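Annotated sample (chain length 372).
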Amino acid sequence: MHPRQFIALTALGLALTAAASIAPGLHRASLLGPTVASAQTSSENAALGEPAPPLTSVTWLSGNAARAYEPGTVYVLDFWATWCVPCIASMPHLQQLQQKHADDNVEFIGLAVFPRPGTTPVLDFVHNPARYSGGRVQEVTWTVGEDRGRVTERAYMTSQGLGGIPMVMIIDREGLLAWIGHPNAMDEPLAQIVSGEFDTRAYAAVHRLTTELRAQARSNDWAGAVQTIDAMIDADPNQVDVYGSVRYTLTRDQLGDAEGAAAYGQMLLTDLAKDRATPLRELAWAIVNPDAQLARKSRDVELAERAGERAVELTERKSGMALGVLARVRAWQGNYAEAVELSEEALEITTDPRERPMIQAGLAEYRAKLGE
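Output written by the structure step:
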């Protein structure tokens, strides 16, 4: 299997959408003495799409103790530690989001987990963040709690197979665990959760299916993987952007079903992705990618042409990558003159440093074919 498809298959659901909200009004965290929550702990473990277990084993160090999730409030849980440099580096971004959503009834909570002996005490950081953050954080403006007995760590992190921080989890207004991911990836999901546009249950379903998909990829269960991708797209049609071309490629290459692949490609073109440029561009590229180990007869260039032209149409010729892919289609058709024109047009509008080298390499190849 080509590395590009393998990477797409094993991509984690953490790259999906997320959302978050903050406390009503930009509240200044009061540096209270430690407030110890009830000793009663919940036996529940956190799971996407399910009610989030209460924070019953937390020592609250600043802000508003959040022993229970209030209906109608969004909670952003930032799992961090004083020894975690990336955690501290992400704090200014969290503060920016806190300010942005100050009137949206969102509560930001920092939960200190994974303690290490000999590191800065959490309360010291709360009292003097500028000193311990290298000047990145001048004031702790969010609620901060410290896990006691590693109960919260087990309920939210290790129970879900998570061991890395920083990690953000967002609880929606119904008290459901809606999103999990890196703080820097939560802007759009947070906005969607705040506005009510985020589908928590669909996201949870896709996340569970992604876990299945990763296991199927590891065991080379490609037939199962195809079925799982279909279920993912059915649960969330946006997943066609990521997995539509992967499903096509698996059917063609791993299952050896050329007719089935062609039928699915037509379905992408006429139904599932007919108005979506990204999956159509990726479908065309899956067919004409010169690095794919495919014979010419195994490449459905006619389908690639239709998908590539539609992607260019949908992007109104403003996507350098779409133009570059269509240039490669023209090259497979032997039309190197148009491939050159399309590549030159793509380079005029492409600023992404990741795209330019591929387009430039193609342009040099097409010019060589023309004897230029």
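Annotation: The radius of gyration is 25 Å.
Annotation: The chain is about 50% helix and 10% strand.
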